[in-house]
Specification:
By secondary structure, this protein is an alpha/beta fold. The chain contains ten helices and 14 strands. It folds into two domains: 153 residues, 3-Layer(aba) Sandwich (D-Maltodextrin-Binding Protein, domain 2), CATH 3.40.190; 100 residues, Periplasmic binding protein-like II (D-Maltodextrin-Binding Protein, domain 2), CATH 3.40.190.10. It is globular, with a radius of gyration of 19 Å. It starts with 32 loop residues before the first strand and ends in an 18-residue tail after the last helix. The relative contact order is 0.25.
């Protein structure tokens, strides 16, 4: 799901990458697989039913309570966090969490597929009550929306199996890099990698990176050989390694972990209810079951924070 922006930390010395966390969307399949950072992905795994908590439902604004649903914007191209299955249904970790949050509040979630860069503006326009699309919680985003933290992820990279171009994670200067439009990774190339390359007297990343609207296209660009490297959130990279049938391999370590946040309108009366619902799901074990279902439990947190950006 797309450039989930963060303030990157790509340090110079030949453009050493200590990539900042991003917010993206990724490739998707509903098949079971394991990931590098968690257990096997099992989309058919059962998660205990979530029932409404009257004390939390009481926090829901009256207009939303009467409507009975939460409209959630999500860029369904970022597996395993949010993507479309073989039948076209939107599924994934964020979708299950959105459904569980809504149920805790006595509501029903309606998850709508949206372009990643259109979700936060859509919240401002009252098109969506929530944005759940692997958004990295950043200080910059917190100026526009409230963010309730619910996960942590870092930035990862992948290249074709065997790394035929012998690319080093510590030197991306001059390499063709695929990223999703609007992501932290895309910002990193412009703000950190290329300035460091210029300072070192090395060629910059062409085109400031090849940018694609869908994370699936980012993955395909590397598989097809159009680009040499892809950058995305760590769960997305781990999932892509499995879903491409061994055509990709990870490049370097996961770096710069940071929280994901559920985006809500700034100062929304709904924010305390969502924060309390996420914490309740963490406390009662539902949250852990959902993360295990999608093989991403390595990113679990134990406290839902409001506006918990680290940078």
């Amino acid at each position: 799901m797309t450039a989930r922006t963060l303030r990157p930390r790509l340090v110079a010395a030949g453009a050493t990458l200590a990539a900042g966390t991003l917010l993206l969307t990724a490739c998707g399949s509903s098949g079971s697989s394991s990931t590098a950072s968690g257990s096997a992905v099992n989309p058919s795994a059962s998660v205990k039913a979530v029932t409404a908590d009257p004390s939390l439902a009481a926090l829901v604004p009256a207009d939303l309570k009467s409507g009975g649903k939460l409209i959630v914007g999500s860029d369904a191209s970022y597996a395993p966090n949010e993507f479309q299955d073989d039948k076209g249904a939107i599924v994934g970790m964020d979708v299950d969490l959105a459904n569980a949050v809504a149920a805790k509040l006595g509501l029903k979630a309606e998850v709508q597929n949206a372009g990643f860069t259109a979700i936060i503006p859509g919240i401002g326009a009252n098109k969506y009550q929530l944005g759940m699309s692997s958004f990295t919680d950043t200080k910059e985003r917190e100026q526009t929306v409230d963010m309730v933290t619910y996960f942590t992820a870092g930035t990862g990279m992948a290249v074709k199996k065997g790394n035929p171009d012998k690319i080093s994670a510590d030197d991306l200067c001059g390499k063709k890099i695929a990223v999703q439009t609007g992501t932290t990774q895309a910002d990193q190339i412009v703000d950190v990698i290329n300035p460091a390359c210029t300072a070192a007297g090395k060629p910059t990343v062409p085109n400031d990176g090849d940018k694609f609207d869908l994370q699936t296209d980012v993955t395909n660009a590397v598989v097809s050989g159009r680009d040499q490297v892809m950058m995305a959130d760590s769960p997305v990279i781990d999932y892509a390694l499995k879903q491409t049938g061994g055509q990709l391999e990870k490049l370097g370590p996961t770096t710069d972990s940071a929280p994901y946040g559920i985006a809500l309108a700034k100062g929304s009366a709904l924010t305390p209810a969502v924060q309390a619902a996420v914490q309740s799901l963490i406390d009662d074990g539902t949250y852990k079951q959902i993360l295990q279902k999608w093989g991403v439990e390595a990113g679990a947190i134990d406290k839902a924070q409001l506006n918990g950006a680290t940078s």
